[in-house]
Amino acid sequence: MTDRPVEIVRGELQPWTDYGAHSPAGGAALLALLGDLLPERSARTLVAGPHDRAVLDLAAARSAALTVLVRSVSDAAALREWLPEPHVTVVAGALDGLTGVPPFDVVLAADGLDRVLGADSPALDWPGRLAELDRLAAPDALVVVAVENEFALTGLLDRRPADARHGDEEWRPLHDDPDRPTSPAQVTAALGGEVRLYAAFAGHSLLGADVLAESRPGRLGTRLAIAGLDATAAQVPLLAPLDDGAGAAARAGLLAAVAPGWLAVRGSGGGATHAGYAAAGDGVLAVDLDEDDGWTVSVRSGATAAFDPALVPHRLPDTASVETQLFRLAAAEDVPGFRALAARVGAWANPEGVICLDDLHPDGDGFSRGVLGHPAAAGEGTAELLAGAWHRFRDRLLRAHRRHPWPPWMSGSDDLVSAWLGMSGVEASAAVLKAGREIADRVAEPPVAEPDVRAALAGAAAAEVRITELAGQVFGLERTIRFRDQSLRTREQQLRTMRDELRGLRGSPAGRLHALARKVAKIRHPRQFARAVKRRLRGA
To answer: Which domain of life is it from (predicted)?
Structure first.
Protein backbone atom coordinates (compact mmCIF):
# COMPACT_ATOMS: atom_id res chain seq x y z
CA MET A 1 0.00 0.00 0.00
CA THR A 2 1.20 3.49 -0.81
CA ASP A 3 0.88 6.28 1.73
CA ARG A 4 0.00 8.84 -0.95
CA PRO A 5 -3.77 9.13 -1.41
CA VAL A 6 -5.60 9.71 -4.65
CA GLU A 7 -6.35 13.35 -5.38
CA ILE A 8 -9.96 14.10 -6.32
CA VAL A 9 -11.08 17.05 -8.42
CA ARG A 10 -14.47 18.05 -9.82
CA GLY A 11 -16.06 15.62 -12.24
CA GLU A 12 -15.12 12.27 -10.69
CA LEU A 13 -17.29 9.22 -11.39
CA GLN A 14 -18.11 6.55 -8.81
CA PRO A 15 -18.78 3.67 -9.13
CA TRP A 16 -17.28 3.49 -12.60
CA THR A 17 -14.45 1.99 -14.63
CA ASP A 18 -12.91 2.90 -17.96
CA TYR A 19 -10.86 -0.31 -17.99
CA GLY A 20 -13.77 -2.53 -19.02
CA ALA A 21 -15.03 -3.74 -22.40
CA HIS A 22 -13.65 -0.68 -24.19
CA SER A 23 -9.92 -1.21 -23.79
CA PRO A 24 -7.70 1.73 -22.81
CA ALA A 25 -5.00 3.10 -25.11
CA GLY A 26 -2.08 0.73 -25.47
CA GLY A 27 -0.52 -1.92 -27.64
CA ALA A 28 2.93 -2.72 -28.94
CA ALA A 29 2.78 -0.14 -31.76
CA LEU A 30 1.87 2.75 -29.44
CA LEU A 31 4.50 1.68 -26.92
CA ALA A 32 7.18 1.59 -29.64
CA LEU A 33 6.21 5.04 -30.95
CA LEU A 34 6.24 6.56 -27.46
CA GLY A 35 9.58 4.91 -26.78
CA ASP A 36 11.03 6.86 -29.72
CA LEU A 37 9.00 10.00 -29.13
CA LEU A 38 9.14 10.76 -25.42
CA PRO A 39 12.19 12.63 -24.12
CA GLU A 40 14.58 10.69 -21.95
CA ARG A 41 13.62 12.91 -19.04
CA SER A 42 10.86 15.52 -19.07
CA ALA A 43 10.13 17.83 -16.16
CA ARG A 44 6.36 17.39 -16.01
CA THR A 45 4.12 14.91 -17.85
CA LEU A 46 0.33 14.61 -17.91
CA VAL A 47 -1.44 11.42 -19.00
CA ALA A 48 -5.14 12.20 -19.51
CA GLY A 49 -7.65 9.39 -19.82
CA PRO A 50 -7.36 5.60 -19.47
CA HIS A 51 -4.06 4.17 -20.73
CA ASP A 52 -2.50 0.75 -20.59
CA ARG A 53 -0.24 0.19 -17.62
CA ALA A 54 2.77 -0.42 -19.87
CA VAL A 55 2.27 3.09 -21.27
CA LEU A 56 2.05 4.51 -17.75
CA ASP A 57 5.23 2.67 -16.74
CA LEU A 58 7.06 4.19 -19.73
CA ALA A 59 5.75 7.68 -18.94
CA ALA A 60 6.78 7.31 -15.30
CA ALA A 61 10.28 6.23 -16.31
CA ARG A 62 10.67 9.21 -18.69
CA SER A 63 9.35 11.92 -16.39
CA ALA A 64 10.53 13.67 -13.27
CA ALA A 65 6.91 14.35 -12.25
CA LEU A 66 4.01 12.39 -13.72
CA THR A 67 0.31 13.22 -13.27
CA VAL A 68 -2.24 10.56 -14.30
CA LEU A 69 -5.82 11.83 -14.69
CA VAL A 70 -8.73 9.37 -14.83
CA ARG A 71 -12.36 10.15 -14.13
CA SER A 72 -13.10 6.97 -12.14
CA VAL A 73 -12.27 6.90 -8.42
CA SER A 74 -11.91 3.11 -8.42
CA ASP A 75 -9.58 3.23 -11.46
CA ALA A 76 -7.51 5.92 -9.74
CA ALA A 77 -7.20 3.81 -6.60
CA ALA A 78 -6.03 0.81 -8.65
CA LEU A 79 -3.48 2.95 -10.50
CA ARG A 80 -2.23 4.37 -7.21
CA GLU A 81 -1.47 0.80 -6.12
CA TRP A 82 0.21 0.12 -9.46
CA LEU A 83 2.31 3.32 -9.43
CA PRO A 84 3.41 3.94 -5.82
CA GLU A 85 6.44 6.04 -6.84
CA PRO A 86 6.60 9.42 -5.08
CA HIS A 87 6.98 11.36 -8.34
CA VAL A 88 3.65 10.01 -9.63
CA THR A 89 0.37 11.78 -8.81
CA VAL A 90 -2.94 10.07 -9.54
CA VAL A 91 -5.97 12.32 -9.90
CA ALA A 92 -9.63 11.26 -10.13
CA GLY A 93 -11.87 13.71 -11.93
CA ALA A 94 -12.61 15.47 -15.21
CA LEU A 95 -10.19 17.34 -17.42
CA ASP A 96 -12.00 20.63 -16.83
CA GLY A 97 -11.74 20.06 -13.07
CA LEU A 98 -7.94 19.95 -13.09
CA THR A 99 -7.07 23.57 -12.30
CA GLY A 100 -4.39 25.46 -10.47
CA VAL A 101 -1.51 23.28 -11.69
CA PRO A 102 1.65 24.39 -13.53
CA PRO A 103 1.75 23.66 -17.27
CA PHE A 104 3.06 20.30 -18.45
CA ASP A 105 5.98 19.67 -20.82
CA VAL A 106 4.43 16.48 -22.18
CA VAL A 107 0.68 15.90 -22.53
CA LEU A 108 -0.39 12.41 -23.52
CA ALA A 109 -4.02 11.67 -24.48
CA ALA A 110 -3.57 8.57 -26.64
CA ASP A 111 -7.05 7.33 -25.65
CA GLY A 112 -8.63 10.44 -27.16
CA LEU A 113 -10.80 13.11 -25.58
CA ASP A 114 -14.03 11.13 -25.22
CA ARG A 115 -13.35 9.75 -21.73
CA VAL A 116 -11.93 12.77 -19.94
CA LEU A 117 -15.18 14.47 -18.80
CA GLY A 118 -17.48 13.58 -15.92
CA ALA A 119 -21.20 13.81 -15.28
CA ASP A 120 -20.78 17.28 -13.71
CA SER A 121 -18.76 18.64 -16.62
CA PRO A 122 -20.30 20.92 -19.22
CA ALA A 123 -21.20 19.29 -22.54
CA LEU A 124 -18.02 20.40 -24.27
CA ASP A 125 -17.66 19.59 -27.93
CA TRP A 126 -14.39 18.22 -29.27
CA PRO A 127 -12.72 21.63 -29.83
CA GLY A 128 -13.74 22.59 -26.28
CA ARG A 129 -12.09 19.48 -24.84
CA LEU A 130 -8.97 20.13 -26.90
CA ALA A 131 -8.91 23.67 -25.52
CA GLU A 132 -8.97 22.24 -21.98
CA LEU A 133 -6.03 20.00 -22.89
CA ASP A 134 -4.12 22.90 -24.42
CA ARG A 135 -4.78 24.92 -21.26
CA LEU A 136 -2.67 22.43 -19.32
CA ALA A 137 0.19 22.27 -21.86
CA ALA A 138 3.22 24.54 -21.98
CA PRO A 139 3.64 26.64 -25.15
CA ASP A 140 6.33 24.33 -26.57
CA ALA A 141 4.96 21.11 -25.04
CA LEU A 142 4.88 17.73 -26.74
CA VAL A 143 1.17 16.91 -27.18
CA VAL A 144 -0.07 13.48 -28.30
CA VAL A 145 -3.83 13.24 -28.98
CA ALA A 146 -5.91 10.42 -30.45
CA VAL A 147 -8.99 11.20 -32.53
CA GLU A 148 -11.73 8.71 -33.37
CA ASN A 149 -12.78 8.65 -37.02
CA GLU A 150 -16.53 8.70 -37.58
CA PHE A 151 -15.93 7.95 -41.27
CA ALA A 152 -13.93 4.80 -40.51
CA LEU A 153 -14.41 1.85 -42.84
CA THR A 154 -15.18 -0.40 -39.87
CA GLY A 155 -17.92 2.02 -38.83
CA LEU A 156 -19.39 2.30 -42.32
CA LEU A 157 -19.60 -1.51 -42.61
CA ASP A 158 -20.82 -2.06 -39.04
CA ARG A 159 -24.24 -3.69 -39.39
CA ARG A 160 -25.38 -2.75 -35.90
CA PRO A 161 -27.78 0.21 -35.65
CA ALA A 162 -26.37 3.43 -34.26
CA ASP A 163 -28.06 3.08 -30.88
CA ALA A 164 -26.52 -0.36 -30.31
CA ARG A 165 -22.88 0.52 -31.01
CA HIS A 166 -22.15 2.26 -27.70
CA GLY A 167 -22.73 0.59 -24.37
CA ASP A 168 -23.06 2.30 -21.01
CA GLU A 169 -19.45 1.41 -20.23
CA GLU A 170 -18.45 3.73 -23.10
CA TRP A 171 -20.22 6.75 -21.62
CA ARG A 172 -19.23 9.96 -23.35
CA PRO A 173 -20.90 13.36 -23.30
CA LEU A 174 -21.51 13.77 -27.03
CA HIS A 175 -21.95 10.96 -29.54
CA ASP A 176 -23.15 13.34 -32.26
CA ASP A 177 -20.58 16.12 -32.38
CA PRO A 178 -20.64 18.12 -35.64
CA ASP A 179 -17.40 19.88 -34.70
CA ARG A 180 -15.34 16.71 -34.32
CA PRO A 181 -12.59 16.48 -36.99
CA THR A 182 -13.28 13.57 -39.35
CA SER A 183 -10.40 13.68 -41.83
CA PRO A 184 -6.61 13.91 -41.65
CA ALA A 185 -6.71 17.49 -42.93
CA GLN A 186 -9.30 18.50 -40.32
CA VAL A 187 -7.29 16.94 -37.48
CA THR A 188 -4.14 18.74 -38.59
CA ALA A 189 -5.99 22.03 -38.83
CA ALA A 190 -7.66 21.57 -35.44
CA LEU A 191 -4.39 21.01 -33.58
CA GLY A 192 -2.52 23.77 -35.38
CA GLY A 193 1.24 24.08 -35.67
CA GLU A 194 3.49 21.36 -37.04
CA VAL A 195 1.62 18.07 -36.65
CA ARG A 196 2.75 14.54 -37.42
CA LEU A 197 -0.29 12.36 -38.07
CA TYR A 198 -0.51 8.58 -37.80
CA ALA A 199 -3.46 6.44 -38.84
CA ALA A 200 -4.26 4.30 -35.78
CA PHE A 201 -5.54 0.73 -36.11
CA ALA A 202 -6.73 -0.55 -32.73
CA GLY A 203 -3.31 -0.84 -31.12
CA HIS A 204 -2.15 -3.15 -33.93
CA SER A 205 -0.40 -0.57 -36.10
CA LEU A 206 0.34 3.12 -36.44
CA LEU A 207 1.08 4.20 -40.01
CA GLY A 208 1.97 7.68 -41.22
CA ALA A 209 -0.95 9.36 -42.98
CA ASP A 210 1.35 10.72 -45.69
CA VAL A 211 2.75 7.23 -46.32
CA LEU A 212 -0.72 5.69 -46.64
CA ALA A 213 -1.72 8.44 -49.06
CA GLU A 214 0.93 7.11 -51.46
CA SER A 215 0.29 3.42 -50.86
CA ARG A 216 -1.60 1.29 -53.36
CA PRO A 217 -3.24 -2.18 -53.26
CA GLY A 218 -0.84 -5.05 -52.66
CA ARG A 219 1.97 -2.91 -51.26
CA LEU A 220 3.36 -3.13 -47.76
CA GLY A 221 1.65 -0.02 -46.42
CA THR A 222 -1.75 -1.23 -47.61
CA ARG A 223 -1.09 -4.71 -46.24
CA LEU A 224 -0.26 -3.37 -42.78
CA ALA A 225 -3.31 -1.12 -42.87
CA ILE A 226 -5.62 -3.99 -43.83
CA ALA A 227 -4.14 -6.13 -41.05
CA GLY A 228 -4.89 -3.29 -38.65
CA LEU A 229 -8.45 -2.99 -39.98
CA ASP A 230 -8.95 -6.73 -39.49
CA ALA A 231 -7.71 -6.42 -35.91
CA THR A 232 -10.10 -3.50 -35.33
CA ALA A 233 -13.06 -5.37 -36.80
CA ALA A 234 -12.41 -8.61 -34.90
CA GLN A 235 -15.37 -7.92 -32.58
CA VAL A 236 -17.53 -5.91 -35.00
CA PRO A 237 -20.32 -7.61 -37.01
CA LEU A 238 -19.75 -6.48 -40.58
CA LEU A 239 -21.98 -6.05 -43.59
CA ALA A 240 -19.16 -6.99 -45.97
CA PRO A 241 -15.44 -7.85 -45.86
CA LEU A 242 -13.03 -4.97 -45.39
CA ASP A 243 -10.59 -5.96 -48.15
CA ASP A 244 -12.62 -4.61 -51.06
CA GLY A 245 -13.29 -1.26 -49.40
CA ALA A 246 -9.70 -0.94 -48.21
CA GLY A 247 -8.42 -1.75 -51.69
CA ALA A 248 -10.67 0.88 -53.24
CA ALA A 249 -9.55 3.44 -50.65
CA ALA A 250 -5.91 2.59 -51.36
CA ARG A 251 -6.41 3.08 -55.10
CA ALA A 252 -7.89 6.50 -54.36
CA GLY A 253 -5.11 7.41 -51.92
CA LEU A 254 -7.67 7.67 -49.09
CA LEU A 255 -6.60 4.77 -46.90
CA ALA A 256 -5.65 7.11 -44.05
CA ALA A 257 -9.05 8.81 -44.32
CA VAL A 258 -10.95 5.56 -43.53
CA ALA A 259 -8.75 4.41 -40.64
CA PRO A 260 -10.48 3.78 -37.28
CA GLY A 261 -8.74 6.85 -35.88
CA TRP A 262 -5.64 8.99 -35.86
CA LEU A 263 -2.85 9.78 -33.46
CA ALA A 264 -1.67 13.37 -33.78
CA VAL A 265 1.74 14.49 -32.48
CA ARG A 266 2.41 18.18 -32.03
CA GLY A 267 5.71 19.56 -30.83
CA SER A 268 9.21 18.16 -30.66
CA GLY A 269 9.97 14.91 -28.91
CA GLY A 270 12.98 13.14 -27.62
CA GLY A 271 14.06 11.35 -30.79
CA ALA A 272 13.36 10.44 -34.39
CA THR A 273 10.27 8.40 -35.13
CA HIS A 274 9.54 5.98 -37.95
CA ALA A 275 6.92 6.18 -40.68
CA GLY A 276 5.02 3.24 -39.24
CA TYR A 277 4.84 0.73 -36.41
CA ALA A 278 3.04 -2.62 -36.59
CA ALA A 279 2.67 -5.58 -34.26
CA ALA A 280 4.71 -8.67 -35.18
CA GLY A 281 4.71 -11.72 -32.97
CA ASP A 282 5.17 -10.39 -29.44
CA GLY A 283 7.17 -7.42 -30.74
CA VAL A 284 6.81 -4.69 -33.31
CA LEU A 285 8.00 -3.76 -36.80
CA ALA A 286 9.34 -0.26 -37.46
CA VAL A 287 9.12 0.71 -41.14
CA ASP A 288 10.23 3.67 -43.23
CA LEU A 289 9.62 4.40 -46.90
CA ASP A 290 12.08 5.90 -49.34
CA GLU A 291 10.84 6.75 -52.83
CA ASP A 292 13.94 5.28 -54.46
CA ASP A 293 14.96 2.40 -52.17
CA GLY A 294 11.54 1.17 -51.03
CA TRP A 295 10.82 0.08 -47.47
CA THR A 296 13.34 -0.20 -44.66
CA VAL A 297 12.17 -2.66 -42.02
CA SER A 298 13.54 -3.30 -38.52
CA VAL A 299 12.19 -5.85 -36.06
CA ARG A 300 12.16 -5.09 -32.35
CA SER A 301 12.13 -8.53 -30.69
CA GLY A 302 8.91 -10.32 -31.53
CA ALA A 303 10.25 -13.88 -31.99
CA THR A 304 7.58 -16.55 -31.50
CA ALA A 305 6.98 -20.08 -32.74
CA ALA A 306 5.04 -18.67 -35.70
CA PHE A 307 7.29 -15.66 -36.40
CA ASP A 308 11.01 -15.61 -37.12
CA PRO A 309 12.57 -12.10 -37.32
CA ALA A 310 15.45 -13.52 -39.35
CA LEU A 311 13.03 -14.13 -42.25
CA VAL A 312 12.03 -10.45 -42.42
CA PRO A 313 14.29 -8.59 -44.91
CA HIS A 314 15.89 -5.31 -43.93
CA ARG A 315 14.88 -3.86 -47.30
CA LEU A 316 11.63 -4.51 -49.14
CA PRO A 317 10.63 -3.08 -52.54
CA ASP A 318 7.48 -0.99 -52.68
CA THR A 319 5.80 -3.20 -55.28
CA ALA A 320 2.44 -4.94 -55.46
CA SER A 321 2.45 -8.44 -54.03
CA VAL A 322 2.43 -11.56 -56.21
CA GLU A 323 -1.06 -12.40 -54.95
CA THR A 324 -2.41 -9.02 -56.09
CA GLN A 325 -0.94 -9.51 -59.55
CA LEU A 326 -2.29 -13.07 -59.77
CA PHE A 327 -5.76 -11.86 -58.73
CA ARG A 328 -5.68 -9.30 -61.54
CA LEU A 329 -4.53 -11.87 -64.10
CA ALA A 330 -7.22 -14.33 -62.99
CA ALA A 331 -9.95 -11.67 -63.16
CA ALA A 332 -8.81 -10.75 -66.68
CA GLU A 333 -8.77 -14.48 -67.62
CA ASP A 334 -5.16 -14.05 -68.70
CA VAL A 335 -4.12 -17.68 -68.20
CA PRO A 336 -0.82 -17.34 -70.15
CA GLY A 337 0.20 -14.39 -67.96
CA PHE A 338 -0.86 -16.30 -64.83
CA ARG A 339 1.18 -19.30 -65.96
CA ALA A 340 4.25 -17.16 -66.64
CA LEU A 341 4.15 -15.56 -63.17
CA ALA A 342 3.57 -18.93 -61.52
CA ALA A 343 6.58 -20.33 -63.38
CA ARG A 344 8.72 -17.42 -62.12
CA VAL A 345 7.64 -18.11 -58.53
CA GLY A 346 8.41 -21.82 -58.96
CA ALA A 347 11.89 -21.07 -60.33
CA TRP A 348 12.61 -18.70 -57.42
CA ALA A 349 11.12 -20.78 -54.58
CA ASN A 350 13.44 -21.89 -51.79
CA PRO A 351 12.86 -23.69 -48.47
CA GLU A 352 14.00 -20.82 -46.24
CA GLY A 353 10.48 -20.20 -44.93
CA VAL A 354 6.79 -20.56 -45.67
CA ILE A 355 5.85 -18.94 -48.99
CA CYS A 356 2.83 -16.63 -48.75
CA LEU A 357 1.99 -15.09 -52.11
CA ASP A 358 0.28 -12.13 -50.43
CA ASP A 359 3.60 -11.47 -48.64
CA LEU A 360 5.87 -11.98 -51.65
CA HIS A 361 6.94 -8.95 -53.69
CA PRO A 362 8.67 -8.80 -57.11
CA ASP A 363 12.21 -7.49 -56.74
CA GLY A 364 14.00 -7.14 -60.06
CA ASP A 365 14.27 -10.56 -61.67
CA GLY A 366 13.45 -12.32 -58.40
CA PHE A 367 11.25 -11.86 -55.36
CA SER A 368 11.54 -10.66 -51.77
CA ARG A 369 9.69 -12.10 -48.81
CA GLY A 370 7.59 -9.72 -46.77
CA VAL A 371 7.04 -9.24 -43.06
CA LEU A 372 5.02 -12.32 -42.05
CA GLY A 373 8.15 -14.32 -41.19
CA HIS A 374 6.55 -17.78 -40.98
CA PRO A 375 9.32 -20.38 -40.48
CA ALA A 376 9.20 -23.71 -42.29
CA ALA A 377 8.97 -26.93 -40.30
CA ALA A 378 11.42 -29.80 -40.53
CA GLY A 379 11.06 -31.88 -43.68
CA GLU A 380 9.20 -29.22 -45.67
CA GLY A 381 10.94 -28.77 -49.00
CA THR A 382 10.35 -26.47 -51.93
CA ALA A 383 7.53 -28.61 -53.37
CA GLU A 384 5.63 -28.71 -50.09
CA LEU A 385 6.07 -24.96 -49.49
CA LEU A 386 4.81 -24.16 -53.00
CA ALA A 387 1.81 -26.43 -52.42
CA GLY A 388 1.11 -24.55 -49.19
CA ALA A 389 1.35 -21.23 -51.04
CA TRP A 390 -1.14 -22.31 -53.70
CA HIS A 391 -3.53 -23.80 -51.13
CA ARG A 392 -3.47 -20.49 -49.27
CA PHE A 393 -3.97 -18.59 -52.53
CA ARG A 394 -6.99 -20.72 -53.43
CA ASP A 395 -8.52 -20.22 -49.97
CA ARG A 396 -8.19 -16.45 -50.24
CA LEU A 397 -9.42 -16.42 -53.86
CA LEU A 398 -12.58 -18.36 -53.07
CA ARG A 399 -13.28 -16.67 -49.74
CA ALA A 400 -13.33 -13.28 -51.47
CA HIS A 401 -15.53 -14.64 -54.32
CA ARG A 402 -13.07 -13.32 -56.91
CA ARG A 403 -13.43 -13.95 -60.63
CA HIS A 404 -11.23 -16.59 -62.24
CA PRO A 405 -11.23 -18.54 -65.52
CA TRP A 406 -11.24 -22.09 -64.11
CA PRO A 407 -14.40 -24.26 -64.03
CA PRO A 408 -16.35 -24.54 -60.75
CA TRP A 409 -15.78 -28.27 -60.38
CA MET A 410 -12.04 -27.60 -59.99
CA SER A 411 -12.53 -25.06 -57.20
CA GLY A 412 -13.91 -27.51 -54.67
CA SER A 413 -11.08 -30.03 -55.04
CA ASP A 414 -7.30 -30.15 -55.22
CA ASP A 415 -7.40 -30.09 -59.02
CA LEU A 416 -6.97 -26.31 -59.07
CA VAL A 417 -3.94 -26.46 -56.76
CA SER A 418 -2.52 -29.31 -58.84
CA ALA A 419 -2.84 -27.22 -62.00
CA TRP A 420 -1.10 -24.26 -60.38
CA LEU A 421 1.65 -26.48 -59.03
CA GLY A 422 2.17 -27.80 -62.54
CA MET A 423 2.55 -24.21 -63.74
CA SER A 424 5.25 -23.76 -61.08
CA GLY A 425 7.10 -26.85 -62.30
CA VAL A 426 6.17 -29.16 -59.41
CA GLU A 427 4.52 -32.57 -59.71
CA ALA A 428 1.38 -32.57 -57.59
CA SER A 429 1.56 -35.91 -55.80
CA ALA A 430 -0.86 -36.83 -53.04
CA ALA A 431 1.84 -36.45 -50.37
CA VAL A 432 2.83 -32.98 -51.61
CA LEU A 433 -0.80 -31.82 -51.69
CA LYS A 434 -1.42 -33.12 -48.18
CA ALA A 435 1.69 -31.42 -46.80
CA GLY A 436 0.72 -28.19 -48.56
CA ARG A 437 -2.74 -28.29 -47.01
CA GLU A 438 -1.19 -28.63 -43.55
CA ILE A 439 1.13 -25.66 -44.19
CA ALA A 440 -1.74 -23.48 -45.41
CA ASP A 441 -3.82 -24.36 -42.35
CA ARG A 442 -0.89 -23.54 -40.07
CA VAL A 443 -0.45 -20.01 -41.41
CA ALA A 444 -4.12 -19.27 -42.17
CA GLU A 445 -5.81 -16.21 -40.72
CA PRO A 446 -8.02 -16.81 -37.67
CA PRO A 447 -11.52 -17.81 -38.78
CA VAL A 448 -14.23 -15.17 -38.60
CA ALA A 449 -16.53 -15.94 -35.69
CA GLU A 450 -19.60 -14.48 -37.39
CA PRO A 451 -19.95 -14.29 -41.19
CA ASP A 452 -20.60 -10.94 -42.77
CA VAL A 453 -23.90 -10.23 -44.46
CA ARG A 454 -22.50 -10.23 -47.99
CA ALA A 455 -20.86 -13.61 -47.50
CA ALA A 456 -24.08 -14.93 -45.97
CA LEU A 457 -26.10 -13.67 -48.94
CA ALA A 458 -23.60 -15.15 -51.39
CA GLY A 459 -23.79 -18.43 -49.51
CA ALA A 460 -27.58 -18.32 -49.60
CA ALA A 461 -27.53 -17.65 -53.36
CA ALA A 462 -25.13 -20.54 -53.90
CA ALA A 463 -27.36 -22.73 -51.75
CA GLU A 464 -30.39 -21.78 -53.87
CA VAL A 465 -28.53 -22.75 -57.05
CA ARG A 466 -27.50 -26.03 -55.46
CA ILE A 467 -31.06 -26.67 -54.30
CA THR A 468 -32.35 -26.07 -57.85
CA GLU A 469 -29.75 -28.47 -59.26
CA LEU A 470 -30.58 -31.12 -56.69
CA ALA A 471 -34.32 -30.63 -57.28
CA GLY A 472 -33.73 -31.28 -60.99
CA GLN A 473 -31.77 -34.42 -60.19
CA VAL A 474 -34.50 -35.61 -57.82
CA PHE A 475 -37.13 -35.00 -60.50
CA GLY A 476 -35.13 -37.02 -63.02
CA LEU A 477 -34.66 -39.86 -60.56
CA GLU A 478 -38.35 -39.85 -59.66
CA ARG A 479 -39.31 -40.04 -63.35
CA THR A 480 -36.87 -42.92 -63.94
CA ILE A 481 -38.22 -44.78 -60.92
CA ARG A 482 -41.80 -44.21 -62.14
CA PHE A 483 -40.97 -45.63 -65.58
CA ARG A 484 -39.25 -48.64 -64.03
CA ASP A 485 -42.19 -49.20 -61.71
CA GLN A 486 -44.58 -49.22 -64.66
CA SER A 487 -42.31 -51.66 -66.50
CA LEU A 488 -42.20 -53.96 -63.49
CA ARG A 489 -45.98 -53.89 -63.22
CA THR A 490 -46.29 -54.86 -66.90
CA ARG A 491 -43.90 -57.75 -66.46
CA GLU A 492 -45.74 -58.89 -63.34
CA GLN A 493 -49.02 -58.98 -65.26
CA GLN A 494 -47.38 -60.98 -68.06
CA LEU A 495 -46.04 -63.50 -65.54
CA ARG A 496 -49.47 -63.90 -63.96
CA THR A 497 -51.03 -64.52 -67.36
CA MET A 498 -48.43 -67.18 -68.17
CA ARG A 499 -49.02 -68.88 -64.82
CA ASP A 500 -52.79 -69.07 -65.51
CA GLU A 501 -52.16 -70.52 -68.97
CA LEU A 502 -49.83 -73.15 -67.50
CA ARG A 503 -52.42 -74.17 -64.91
CA GLY A 504 -54.96 -74.73 -67.74
CA LEU A 505 -52.53 -76.93 -69.68
CA ARG A 506 -51.78 -79.33 -66.81
CA GLY A 507 -54.90 -81.54 -67.27
CA SER A 508 -54.95 -81.47 -71.08
CA PRO A 509 -53.40 -84.22 -73.35
CA ALA A 510 -50.67 -81.77 -74.26
CA GLY A 511 -49.98 -81.23 -70.56
CA ARG A 512 -49.82 -84.93 -69.85
CA LEU A 513 -47.51 -85.40 -72.84
CA HIS A 514 -45.33 -82.58 -71.51
CA ALA A 515 -45.15 -84.25 -68.09
CA LEU A 516 -44.27 -87.59 -69.66
CA ALA A 517 -41.62 -85.93 -71.79
CA ARG A 518 -40.11 -84.33 -68.68
CA LYS A 519 -39.93 -87.74 -66.99
CA VAL A 520 -38.41 -89.37 -70.06
CA ALA A 521 -35.84 -86.59 -70.27
CA LYS A 522 -34.65 -87.55 -66.80
CA ILE A 523 -33.63 -91.06 -67.96
CA ARG A 524 -29.85 -91.13 -68.10
CA HIS A 525 -29.36 -94.86 -68.97
CA PRO A 526 -32.04 -96.05 -71.48
CA ARG A 527 -30.79 -99.68 -71.72
CA GLN A 528 -30.87 -100.24 -67.97
CA PHE A 529 -34.33 -98.66 -67.90
CA ALA A 530 -35.54 -101.02 -70.72
CA ARG A 531 -34.21 -104.13 -68.87
CA ALA A 532 -35.94 -102.99 -65.68
CA VAL A 533 -39.25 -102.54 -67.56
CA LYS A 534 -38.92 -106.05 -69.09
CA ARG A 535 -38.34 -107.62 -65.66
CA ARG A 536 -41.44 -105.97 -64.30
CA LEU A 537 -43.49 -107.10 -67.29
CA ARG A 538 -42.32 -110.74 -66.82
CA GLY A 539 -43.23 -110.62 -63.17
CA ALA A 540 -46.64 -109.21 -63.99
So the answer is: Bacteria
For the segment 68-92, the average pLDDT, to the nearest whole number, is 93
Q: Which amino acid is at 148?
A: E
Supply the mean pLDDT for the chain. 89
Q: 110: part of which helix (H) or strand (E)?
A: none
Q: Which amino acid is at 182?
A: T
Would you list the domain boundaries of the chain? Answer: 7-163+181-316, 322-442, 453-505
CATH class of 7-163+181-316: alpha beta
d(CA 219, CA 235): 26
Task: List strand residue ranges (DSSP E) for 354-419, in order.
Answer: 360-363, 366-369
Residues 6+ positions from 276 with CB-CB distance below 8 Å: 198, 205, 206, 207, 208, 211, 221, 224, 285, 286, 287, 288
Give pLDDT tens digits for 240-292: 888 889 999 999 999 999 999 999 999 877 678 999 999 988 889 999 999 88
Q: Which letter, b or e, does each residue of 25-52 get, where b requires 16 or more Cβ atoms within 10 Å of its Cβ?
A: bbbbbbbbbbbebbbeebebbbbbbbbb
The predicted-structure confidence for 116-134, as pLDDT tens digits, reads as follows 998 888 888 999 999 999 9
